[in-house]
Structures are given as C-alpha cells and as structure tokens.
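Tokens in:
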C-alpha cells in the first residue's frame, strides 16, 4: 500500500486488534505509482490509451521528470497537454500499472522491490 494515512491508521488498528500480523503487509513511503519503474508505467499508459490516441511519452522523458514531480503529476500534465478535457484519474493509472505489473511478474522480467515483495507473498500463499 502507499502511504495513505487513513488506510495506514486502519492497518495499525487491525494489528493492535490482532486481526492482522504486521509482517503481512507493507506500507511504501511513496505513492503507489511512484514505486514502479518508468518502463512499466510507459507500457501501461500505451496499452490503456491506445483506443483514444497514441501515448508518445518515452521512458527517458518520464525518468527525467521524476526527480522533481510525482508520476501522477507528470502523466496528468502530459494528458492535459494532449486533451485539456481528459478524464485521467489516479485510480485508473494505478489499475493500469497493476495490470502491466502482473504481466511482468508472470513473465518474470521484473526485479524491482515491489515484485520481490509480491513473490514473497505468492510463496507464502502457495506454501
């Protein structure tokens, strides 16, 4: 989970109430979409927008802006520049990134920290 305070507080309540073990979840210090590699994000955007237009941002463009902005802000600005009346939402971005990540995990081409955590969970569930 990303560091959303209401959700994090609820998780803390669940741990205190012994409904959840603290090692059974992870709270990231960044927003959800910021933990993914630029390549994954660009692939997800290309797949999700191909019906409406061709997403032309390159991985390198996203990489260069990530030092000063969040991924959502970068992509929202990009989408607004193409169509000021777009309906681009953070939840849609998260869903598309999640779908793309699942594909990469299945293909085992992704070695970022997030994927390593997911693999640990999958091993635990499958044990």
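Residues out:
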């Amino acid at each position: 989970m990303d560091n959303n305070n209401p959700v994090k507080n609820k998780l803390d309540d669940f741990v205190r109430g012994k409904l959840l073990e603290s090692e059974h979840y992870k709270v990231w210090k960044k927003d959800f979409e910021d933990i993914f590699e630029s390549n994954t994000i660009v692939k997800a955007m290309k797949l999700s927008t191909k019906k409406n237009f061709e997403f032309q941002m390159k991985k390198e463009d996203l990489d260069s802006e990530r030092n000063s902005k969040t991924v959502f802000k970068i992509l929202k600005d990009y989408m607004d520049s193409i169509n000021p009346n777009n309906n681009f939402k953070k939840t849609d971005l998260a869903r598309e990134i999640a779908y793309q990540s699942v594909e990469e995990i299945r293909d085992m081409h992704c070695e970022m920290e997030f994927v390593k955590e997911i693999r640990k969970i999958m091993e635990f569930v499958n044990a």
